[in-house]
Amino acid sequence: MSSASDPIVRLNPGLDPRRIAPVFKSHGRAHIPQIFPAEVAERIHRALVEETPWGRVFGGAGRHHDFGPGGWEAVPADQRREVELAVQRAGQAGFAYFYENFPVADCHAAGRYLDSYLMRVYEFLNSAEFLEFARVVTGAPQIRLADAQATCYRPGDFLTQHDDHMPDKRRRAAYVFNFTRVWRADWGGQLQFLDADGHVAEAYTPAFNALNLLAVPQPHAVSYVAPLAVGARYSMTGWLRET
Questions:
Q1: Which domain holds residue 93?
Q2: Which of 99, 178, 181, 209 has the fewest CB atoms within 10 Å, i.e. the most exposed one?
Q3: What secondary structure does DSSP assign to 192-205, as a single string?
Q4: Is the separation of the CB atoms in 170 and 242 below 8 Å?
Q5: Taking a C-beta distance cutoff of 8 angstroms, is the pair 179, 48 a contact?
Q6: Predicted confidence band at 84 (pLDDT cuts at 50, 70, 90)?
Q7: Residue 138 neighbours by CB under 8 Å, 6+ apart
Q8: Among positive and negative, which fits the CA dihedral 194, 199, 201, 205?
Q9: Is residue 226 part of a domain?
């Protein structure tokens, strides 16, 4: 949990958003390494790995299910396997997802877990410093706020193709802050960008202390995490919105 000795959340002072903006404009996305000073990234990593009360979310065929901390583990193993297979079948036909999460923005709004260091990160994402950084990089001066969740993908987890477009949410860009120390591309869990022919045009392998920004709408997915993957894929994700 956060304390007075924790590092203040801030961007790496060496970053210049004006140099990143042309890449984003040209490709509709950007990979930004070393987004935070090392001590901030290390503290976020520790919060995700050691302090976060993970729940599990999954859905498909237009249905969403949310199990809070400990809820999914309380379900008998055979029933969990049946649900997992059902979500995989839903993913064969359309949008589906299966991963662990911690709803940072929702908890902050409800006054829950306010001593978590992740809440300091969320507050920073809604600070003038970060929002202006995001506006310059994305070329979207309309951005006014960021929502956020923490996510953890373990073997068997995935997020199928979607484009994040929800008119009522007024999303201008999506973001993924990565805090996975060691990851290989063949373990899956890649942020994949899909072209008009359904090919993977580009993919970002999770990289520690890196920010991925992408314009909305844009077809993308998080590829299935293979059973051979070691550890988990940790991140903070969300959208930069007008309202």
A1: 17-241
A2: 181
A3: EEE-TTS-EEEEE-
A4: yes
A5: yes
A6: very high
A7: 21, 24, 172, 173, 213, 215, 240
A8: positive
A9: yes
